[in-house]
Inverse folding.
């Protein structure tokens, strides 16, 4: 199956799934839990979710590790930042 090249700024869940390789159901769950930025459009009963490609790129970049190793410095910095804010 050929890979679809997506040049749009805002994706629906299907397009975001194609772009990231993350299943749509997982994207919906992540959006609902606030793990990935999303834009809700419409009423509560008929809302549609859009994903900003730039947000997705930042999200994926933040999950990246080098050679399968976690960036300890980045994690430590995040923990310290979270502790200082609380």
């Amino acid at each position: 199956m050929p890979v679809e090249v997506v040049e749009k700024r805002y994706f629906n869940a299907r397009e975001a799934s194609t772009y990231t390789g993350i299943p749509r159901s997982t994207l919906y769950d992540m959006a609902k839990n606030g793990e990935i930025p999303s834009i809700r459009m419409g009423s509560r009963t008929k809302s549609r979710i859009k994903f900003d490609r730039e947000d997705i790129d930042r999200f994926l970049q933040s999950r990246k590790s080098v050679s399968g190793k976690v960036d300890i410095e980045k994690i430590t910095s995040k923990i310290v930042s979270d502790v200082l804010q609380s």
In short: The chain has a mean pLDDT of 82.
